[in-house]
Amino acid sequence: MSEQKFLWTDLETSGLDPDNHRILEIAVVATDNKLNILGEYKAIVSCDDFSDMNDFVLDMHTKNGLIEECKQSKLSLAQIEQHLICFIEELKLGEKPIIAGNSVHFDKTFIRKQMSALDALLHYRILDVSTLKEMLRNFYDLKIPKDHGNHRASQDVHASMNEFIRYKSILKIDMLGY
């Protein structure tokens, strides 16, 4: 049996509803189950119409520079999806990689709706770091600092991986005594 691979993923979107909002930015980091990085990909979707954003999201993505980068990008979402499919195939990730990240069910929902060919390559399971965070916070009374991410996909995906590494060290399991 081959070692499971993970596709750490973060999206930035124009809102919270995959039926009415769009993916604007995506970053992925492929790893093995020891968290060795096998490859990284990031891209910004070309866009010049931001009318689907509410004021909060428009302000956030203006301040973090994403709006301007979307205006400068030449890549369509369909092109980015094809790049990601090639990225997964070139890395020879074996069986379907498990999508991983913080609140990654949100990202998976957008991918399922707007990048169905990519979704077909992904495992049905997810590794959601926010589940570990809530477990440690609520059942073990661990004080977890507030997330101060800037809502940019590349930084956020790496922050999710680092957060997972911290939680993994807290939850060390003695495999012989499991």
Please describe the structure with a list of short key phrases separated by commas or semicolons:
single chain, 178 residues, Nucleotidyltransferase, domain 5, alpha/beta, 5 strands, five-stranded mixed β-sheet
CATH architecture: 2-Layer Sandwich
Structural class: alpha/beta
Unreliable stretches: none
Tell how many strands the DSSP assignment holds: 5
User: Strands of the biggest beta sheet: in what spatial order?
Assistant: 3-2-1-4-5
The succession of helices and strands, N to C, reads EEEHHHEHHEHH
> What does the oligomeric state look like here?
single chain
Kindly report how far apart the N and C termini lie: 22 Å
Number of helices: 7
Radius of gyration: 17 Å
| Overall number of domains | 1
Query: Kindly state the mean pLDDT as a whole number?
Result: 93
Please name the CATH topology: Nucleotidyltransferase, domain 5
The first-level CATH class name: Alpha Beta
The general outline is globular
* Fourth CATH level, the homologous superfamily: Ribonuclease H-like superfamily/Ribonuclease H
Classify the beta-strand content into a percent band: 15-25%
Helical content, roughly? 40-55%
Q: Biggest β-sheet, characterized? A: 5 strands, mixed
